[in-house]
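Hey,

The postdoc asked me to send both predictions to you directly instead of through the lab channel. I've kept everything plain text so nothing gets mangled by the mail client. Protein one:
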Amino acid sequence: MRLSLTHRLSAVLLCAAACGPARAQTSDIDVYGTANPSSDRPNVLLVLDASANWNPSVGGTCYFKDGNVNNGQPSNQGSKYAVEICALYNLIDALPLASNGSALFNVGIMLTNAKPDNHKGGYPRQAFTPLDATGKAALKAAIRGIGYGSDDKANLAQLSLMLHEAYLYFKGLAPRVGNLNTPWDSTSVSGGVYASPSANSCGRNYVILIANGGPTNGENGDAEALLRGLGGTAAATKIADPNLGNNDANWADEYARFMRAADVSNKVDVQGIITHGVAVIDPAKSNIKSEIEYRNFTRSIANYGGGNYYEASETDVLVRSLLDIFNQIQAVNSVFASASLPVSVNARGTYMNQVYMGMFRPDADGKPRWRGNLKQYRFGLDATDSLYLVDAYGRAAISSSTGFLSPSAVSFWTRSSTFWANQLMGTPPTSSDAPDGEVVEKGSVAQGLRSRYATSQEERHVYTCIGCTTTAVSLGSDATEFEADNSAITAVMLGAASSTERAALINWVRGTSNAGDEAGPTTTTPTTVRPSIHGDVLHSRPAVLNYGGSTGVVVFYGANDGQLRAVNGNQSGSGAGAELWSFVPQEHFAALSRLRSNTPEVRLSTTPATATASARDYFVDGPIGVYAKFEASGVIDDAWIFVGMRRGGRYLYAFDVSDPLRPRFMWKLTPSSTGMSLLGQTWSEAKAARVKGIDDPVLIMGGGYDAAAEDGSATTTMGHAVYVLNARTGALLRAFTTLHAVTPGSIGRSVAADVTLMDSDADGKIDRAYAVDLGGQVYRIDFESEAGATLAAANWTIYKVADLSEGTATGRKFFFAPDVVATRSFTALMLGSGDREKPLLSATQDHFFEIFDRRIAKGVPSATTPIAWSTLYAMGSGDGRVDGNGCYLALDQGEKVVNAAASIGGSSYFGTNRPAGATAGNVCAANLGVAKTYAMPLFCVAAAGQVVEGGGMPPSPVAGIVGVTNLSGKLVYVPFVIGAPNARHSAIEGSRLRPTVDVPRKRKYWFQETQR
């Protein structure tokens, strides 16, 4: 977890009463109701550089460990050999077994071949072995049998050819030189080919390369030819990196890149090989140029192999590094995250290095109470200036094994504890909040709530506003407290049967553990706070405001525990990570009791017909729009937020958060508000902007989602509009209704997506907007005349730019706003289709579009003809095209675009999901479907997607420029993107953006008002 950045990534729905089997509601959380494929053990090959690089000295001594018993020492203490043999032995001893004693891993060992030269490469010293008790004994014996003096050592490390032999082993091909060295393990070969552990398995595949020095370049010619034979020209494209010195000529990092994308399984879906790199170093030589280049090369192998890089100078560090890798391999958690970054007040247009992720984890038993959290990470730069996400201690935050957070990562605001003594979690399971790693509920904001209110929840600031509509109300008075003493909150509103039940429910929402189904820690001081005090952050993307001055950053976000939250978002200092206040909308009161009782279970489209299951309830689950006015110093003067509910309801709340400690309710819109009868579920962000002729800032938003029509097949009755509102008062300025795709004059489809705003002449006021609906239509709205004159709201215009429905009213759905790239001759609209709310549909055919609006001038033209689907051409793989009306990329059957595109640096980035959809028993896709991220070069150049580890719904990409402190301690500004294809195959990993175009660029619209 979706990023303000999230996840790894989400969904939701709303049904207050139980739904019968025939009316099972569909939504994007249906992906969590599908069955897991059979789970196979991961295959881990330990590849050891047993060359002359083994000789150098490293400090320390080591004992072989059998449990807590010392069982002798390796020879040649103080050498890299001794450190590594001892570490490998103790690693195997420490690795866990399953609770029934069965193996959790298949592990093999490969060593460098010794002389002669025609044996260059690697050989299997120990065939892949299930790591149960018998397998442990066999591996430990094999490791102790590796002799420093008795085993010949190659003169130099043959890293490329070792990885080539490793690939042959995983793939089940004939050995090249692996059967030519004594003592090789002959059980690794059967019938003249390697006995692949992967061929008929869904188990993940890993190489852990333990390197001792730079490679030999004497293998380069053979390695290049072999790699080219395996993967052609693309595989043999050289990686150029000046930080590698002479090592850059070696092919090991290219081999790691090839293996990451290769398919070594006969099962459906790509099963590649992830390569982790561990450089064993002599600290006394750490500043020698060749040593630096060796470390950088090992890092490059890991980076391009999709793994993590480690350095170790003694046995204990090496063991911890290897255990960390195995923990990542073992870790699985069905979560996603949505990321956000605050804008820097000191460098306008750049982001501060603070990445917030709203997270959620579905309940494993299908119950309605899902756990959630808000966590913070930051960007780091490695020695090669590659950008990646790091935790509070500067360590890599993302696991290449899962694409989610590393089990050893510690988010900001997280501290050690013993809170989870009765519910051990993590990899390995512990009672502490730190490391929080991949466990959603550990650490961060949730831990702060549990710690601060451990024994009493009375001081927590939880607000509501009973009967509030258009009159401003300061929150914090007795009448606005969500507490049992507030008599305005009645038992009827809460659906409580008695005053006792009413008080218990209110206190439970505030955080008291009184439902009898959660086990907190057992201590001498009674702990009354419930572990689930923080609910799931499913679709709400954190809205981040940098107030400047002593206040700093505040994060606003919603969750499906019924609360909108404001949190101190600073990385450190007094109160960092603490909840400032929360707000419970009155409209959600009646659904809160179901969260407390945690029944009935959630009905999904795949739920078997039962009498108890019902659709999930949603709460503050929608987008949050922001208006901020800054003083010249960069300190916020006015700040308002506009909170949508998504499936949580048909209303929009506005709050004045100019003082984040003293919020004020401003106004609320519902279908009963003047002119708002078409308002659907508020899925579309209310975006603040300035428009000519309007003194106050305005809000522009889509009319919302019509669940009855879009989940089922009814006629649209709501949401088929675009609204323009006065941001200060909520008054309607103009409502535009959408047009039917097939029948002129009939009702159009709902507008669930955000509306894209554009300031074509950079005067600080928008003159154009683009909207899309769920019927395949694209609209343009103009706020000025062709001459740029001010228009009254009644004279603003809307017309249809494109009809991509292919002649059906429901055939193509756009759930996300188009991204816009302005050129001299046209405005390109990048958007993707797909019914995200029906993720299990497998017979659909969706597309990613680039539409060219050639009307550069303002205002509506005298005649308009919508761009038709039939006039678009398919994207090609060669040079781009900018002729005609635009183009499309046909996605795989069942594949759907599930997030909003972001275009920067010459490419458009977006994500997709499709159901696994293959014969049962032959599928290696996760139960969350097959997810991909794309980087689509502009314009009309097709690109292949990269499969995301773990599947799910990738969050919308985030891109920009961020200030990062490099390894020299210097602040540098780096272009970044989160959600693009990357070495870890993660939907939430950050990477350095390397623009493919070198032309002047400008923002399509940036709203940050400065007091003049």
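Protein two:
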Amino acid sequence: MKKGNDSAFFEEFLNHSDSLDFQKVFKVILSRWYWVAGSLFFFGISCFLFLKLVKPKYVASINLKYLDKQTELDEITSTKPTYLINDGSNEYLTEKYNIQSQEVVENALTKLRYPFTFYRLKDFRHIDIYPYKPLTIKILSFDELKFKTGKFSIDPALKFSYQSENYIKTFKLAKGTICSVPGLSFQVEQINITEKFDIEFVYNNPSIIARDFIKRIEIIEIEDKMPVLTVSFKHHNKPFAKDFLEKLLESYQVYDLRQKQQSSDLTLHFIDDQLKVYSDALREAAHKLEIFKQKNAVFDVSASAIGISEKTRDIEQRKNESEIQKAYIQTLEKNLGNTFEPVNYLSVGLDGTTDAVLVELLDQFNSLISRRKELLMKYSINSSVVKNLDEELGKFRRQILDNILLQKQKNAGTIRILDQNLESLQKQFKQIPALEKNFLYLQSNFEVNKNIYSLLLNKEIESSIVRAGMLPSFRIITLMEVEKIFPKPVQIITLSLFLGFLTGISSIFLTRYFNKKFVDTDLRNASGHVHLLGLIHHFKHKPGKESKFDLNTFLSDQSIFTESVSTLRTRLSFSKSNEKLHQEKGKQILVTSQQSGEGKTFVSVNLALSLTKIGKKVIIIGCDLRRSKLHYFFEDPNEKGLSNYLQKKTDLQDLIKSSSIANLDYIPAGPTPFDPAELLQKDLFQDLLVHCRKEYDYVFLDSAPVGLVSDNVPLLRESHIVLFILRWLYSDKDASQLPEKLALDYEIDKIEVIVNDFYPDNLYNSVTSSQSYTHQYGYDYQGKTYFNQQGKSKITNLKKRLGLHD
């Protein structure tokens, strides 16, 4: 059962729902087109000023591909350094920290050779005029600790000055001028100023500028696990953005090669040290052999002596190689230390017999070091992630040291065995005759030193070739692009137009939404007891305390106001009323409203005037004994009136007064009494009403606002017609509900509503497609205005059509 009731409710709701009428919406917007135009104009001016004054931003970008091939000899040599970026590794992502390092950025600024930034003062902003240099300047000295950031200025008269926080100094601008300020000294080598305008320039402190530029450098990965990075740099000057990015890549390339060549440099340095040792030994051995040959004749040695000599030479060569390997292992152990830096182990041994386990441990150790550096970019040194990695590095360091110890023991054992073999051969050698023995000894010593020296030379050449053939880790794969990212004129203009339209239209509908005054002439919530009698259009000249009107001129023209009053007169004449309410012929009409100022007296006077034009005899009684305004229309002093009569201070003949209009009489309210509500309930007042209904066709009771006081409540049921006045855009929004409440509370059959001071304004029209009951008066008599003023201007007509009313 409940489900059926719900279904019926929704069907009824849908049947009464109103759909949006876009034609009406357009009319609402068109009624305030000048709001939209003004909003567009405001945002247009704002857009122009913004594009004119805002500092632009440019971004220079380029793509780098990181390579597996590190040298031109990768295909020849089998060595592969630990810093090599392998397939499937994300180690290339750590290179962005090298690009953004302080050292690389400062070197790029040095390569740019732009120690000062020059600005031109124009349109209330500083414009960076790079690459134009008004002055060619040579830096003589700079002390960062003493230098205070300030600005140098050159005015159109070429007046040269410097100003910092607490320091001002002027200079003579001429070629060769030496300018000295605290912490900075430079010389003007050349003056390139061609145009006379204000110039300012500041010194680019490398360390401070580098820190600022690091924030403007952005490095992103184009695609996950693809070794291609986009390097970009943002700056407000387009040429500077391009030039700086070029110098940044040059500086990074130098830094990258220098880091790679460190391993080869260590190897070459070690080989050079060994070459010096064996060069001296070879020179001494050759000298001794030469002296021996000079003193003794050359002779043949026996085959056994030759065999012993060759074995001795081989063993001594192996022993020397072991000694070299021992020295290199000691160097490796020293380099390992306790720091968290990669260990370079390129060309660990000269014989290629280095333990593969040690190489594998070193490779893993360096990988963990790289991982630690990457983590330190995100976490602190005391974080659990870094501490766990440090513990793992400690384990690897201990394993490497243990392996190095094993290598040293292995090397020492090899040398010990070689020494034993040499001792055995030397015993055999002692059995050879002394002269032959000495010759063989010298010859063997010379050959050993010669072979070792040749081996060292070959290694030096090989390492030098590898060093010279090293390539950068990256290769530029795209051309540099410089794009303006802010402001983008098309987007800014589009946004300004959008905001202009949005603000203008929003102001229209927000005005409708926040309007708290009465605008609903449809009276949609009214029941069968309340009816809209009609509208009285806007009247330009309203009566007041200082205003005086000639009633003879009222309603004498053919204006839309006059026509609206005439229409109300017709509807009022044919309005149904309870004829049995009173025996007298005259109709008693009560005029009231919610509050003062809604035009009760104004409507009463105009309706009365309109009725007199069709021969009706009318009287208006000022029943508002508190704040009546009826006497203003008739220029009456209001010294005697209804309040005097009800207090029996005057008689009926003196009470009723005639106006300048035939058939129109009135009774002013008189001075404000102490008890107005009680006076209106006296029988004397009822007798007055009976008399008026007998003598007049229409009796208008201009009463007090029923929404404020209850003086006229007893008269509601005693009147043939109750007119409730609502003033357009003046009465409260909920005032239209009061007539319905009065009708229900006091059992009044019908209350007629009149909307006063109405003027057509599409701003407050309904935007739905529902049928509405409205009164539109299409009379537009050209050349006719209030008070018979001829010749309405075209501008006034245009204002009326656009809804611009006074």
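Summary for protein two, as requested: The two ends are 59 Å apart (CA to CA).

Thanks,
C.
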